[in-house]
Amino acid sequence: MADVDIDVRAAELGIDWSQVNLDSIQLPPGDDFGIVSDDEAVYHDDQLEFDTGFGNIIVIDNLPVVAKEKFEKLEGVVRKIYNQLGVIKENGLWMPVDPVTEKSLGYCFVEFNNPQEAQNAREKSHGYKLDKSHIFAVNMFDDFDRLMSVKEEWEAPQTKPYVPGSFEVIVLVSYNLDLRFQENLQKWLTDEKARDQLVIRSGPDTEVLWNDARHKKPEPVHKRPYWTESYVQWSPLGTYLVTLHKQGAAVWGGADTFTRLMRYQHNNVKLVDFSPGEKYLVTYHSQEPSNPRDTSVVEIKVFDVRTGRMMRDFKGSANEFSIGGPGGVAGASWPIFRWAGGKDDKYFAKLSRNTISVYETETFSLIDKKSMKVDNVVDISWSPTDSILSLFVPEQGGGNQPAKVALVQIPSKVELRQKNLFSVSDCKMYWQSSGEYLAVKVNRYTKTKKSTYSGFELFRIKERDIPIEVLELDNKNDKIIAFAWEPKGHRFAVIHGDQPRPDVSFYSMKTAQNSGRVSKLGTLKAKQANALFWSPTGKYIILAGLKGFNGQLEFFNVDELETMATAEHFMATDIEWDPTGRYVATAVTSVHEMENGFSIWSFNGTLLYRILKDHFFQLAWRPRPPSFLSPEKEEEVAKNLKKYSRKYEAEDQDVSLLLSEQDREKRKALKEEWEKWVMQWKSLHEEEKLERQNLRDGEISDEEEEVEYEAKEVEFEDVIDVTEEVVVSDYAE
């Protein structure tokens, strides 16, 4: 039947089978004939097949060499380790023996149920220290075919030409696929107009926009409905945008196309967090218990961002992850893992009850294979630039054992500095962005224990022996409402006092007169503010009144201690500076039903434009990586700013002229439209003139009679002010 169908189809196409040599037809190699599926729903990992069929076998090297009578004991140790990582097949562990000495050869083979279990076992056990002399070297059995095919003579790798927008597929030793999108992921930083990007979510849509402040409007970059099922988040250096989905998380990048770069499988993921250098992505999921009395089960996974490989996962009850932290979900604090400062992403820490667990990312195992035991520890915080961990331990034993704040060097775990604190009710730690200072806000009980007062312990991290200063407010009974360090600077601001009009004070850790003591720069009295927002470049700060203050804004120059502007964004819920410190976004999100949308302001408080969006959920500026310029070069640029700004001043003038011309054209079009409308009604009025006369028995209405108008100037006087003066007359003497 099939042959008949083929003959019929061939006749329809005019093909003479007698002239066709079937032996000359060659199909492309491969099951798919070289045609790659474009179905994005297909995971490449699921389609991966192993050439030799031994993808579920691992080889463990560097085992102890033991005699025959110890085989069973060694095999039991190996089984105990690897049964935790997968299911070993029956008779799936084989340990070769030297026929002469009847001793083991120092390696063995382990066969798992599937390649995924074998891959997971290789990743998690490679580098495992059985003891000081035996560190596991674990490889996939299939790797040996590849290693045996390596040529004896070294050949220089071929340089491939750069092709923007293409994919380069690299098969790693572990058989994971690394899909590296070859578009320049930093291209957005080279924008000729030096603009910044921001992402917004409203309704079902997620949009990436350029902030085109010169033209006083945003310029669309990329828009997609239902791009995420929850929220979106930029990576710390702005390279990636992560979205959350039922199946897991995905990262996107590029200048304007925002192509998906990688997916990370974690069902029902709720939260994500990047390491500071963007090497790792942490995902979080919690499973609600069937019994309300039980606690939620938490699962956390750590992925390599570029390869998508899961480096480690953590599981446990929410109680195990609920100690300390600025925020939380389902009973667990977030972020659960705190990353050490710097871009090397070398360490991360987890706080548990009476325990601080510090992991290193080379093997994703505990430093020294054990956690730090710290009784009653409730909070930890890393330096933003160094591997220094600060921790807070409250009072114990009813006050007999004082509270303490300590600084610990990692990985040595050496305590660098400690400060005992007495009569403490609570502490909050604030690191300065350059890691030079640590401010600890301390709430202390009064002698009667009926009330508290606040002060600060200021650590100078970079100075010898880490000196500590104590700072108390002029009125130590003032409640501290907000605290914020100046980015990359030596100053900080404090809102203190009683609502609704507290005071705002500015302090400096370093002044021209005294570089080693904290000093107060000034205090602003009775301000409608409850939040502080420093510019990323310092110098400027916004004193904001959110929530009950209905969006009061004061743009303040700290160098000059003067207000540049005051404004209001009614019901504002969010305030965020762009990464350059030139512009500020204020937003009203959907927590309010009205006035949803965002506004863009200049650094000195000029409203540039406002965009209204129904059901507005989120706004986030795209971060910029640190500048490659040295501090000396940045200072030189600042000194010669006029020279560099000439180009942009000329461009600004061109834009201003363009906007003026556009305004003129708009006004001209409106005037022409009005005149056209007037002429139409005049023409209609004239056409109906005779009909109106007939309706009035030939009389012309008063409105249609010609009326002469006379323009007159009218002068009037108005009393503006009255001043009384007593004049002593000469005659009064």
Can you put this structure into words, describing what you see?
- The protein has 733 residues and is of the alpha+beta class.
- Helices cover 15% and strands 36% of the residues.
- The protein contains 8 helices and 47 strands.
- The strands form 13 sheets. Strands 22, 23, 24, 25 and 26 form a 5-stranded antiparallel β-sheet that branches.
- Determine the strand fraction and express it as a percent band: 35-45%
Mean pLDDT: 84
Radius of gyration: 36 Å
Compute the number of strand runs: 47
Shape: globular
Helix content: 10-25%
Alpha carbon gap, first and last residue: 139 Å
Q: What is the helix tally?
A: 8
Which class do the helix and strand fractions yield?
alpha+beta
Query: Main beta sheet, described?
Result: 5 strands, antiparallel
In the predicted model, the low-confidence regions spanning at least 5 consecutive residues are 37-52, 165-180, 325-331, 728-733
Indicate the multimeric state. single chain
Summarize the structure.
The protein contains eight helices and 47 strands. It has 733 residues and is α+β, with helices and mostly antiparallel strands.
Keywords for this entry:
5-stranded antiparallel β-sheet, 4-stranded antiparallel β-sheet, 8 helices, alpha+beta, disordered C terminus, 733 residues
Question: Topology, pairings included?
Answer:
Elements lengths: L1 H12 L30 H4 L9 E5 L9 H12 L5 E7 L12 E6 L2 H11 L3 E3 L2 E2 L1 E4 L2 H6 L18 E5 L5 E5 L15 E6 L2 E8 L4 E9 L6 E3 L6 E4 L3 E6 L5 E7 L5 E4 L5 E8 L9 E8 L5 E8 L9 E3 L2 E3 L2 E3 L7 E6 L2 E6 L4 E2 L5 E2 L5 E4 L5 E6 L9 E7 L4 E8 L2 E8 L5 E9 L6 E9 L7 E5 L7 E6 L5 E6 L6 E6 L10 E6 L6 E4 L5 E6 L6 E6 L4 E7 L5 E4 L5 E6 L8 E6 L4 E6 L3 E6 L9 H9 L1 H47 L1 H7 L38
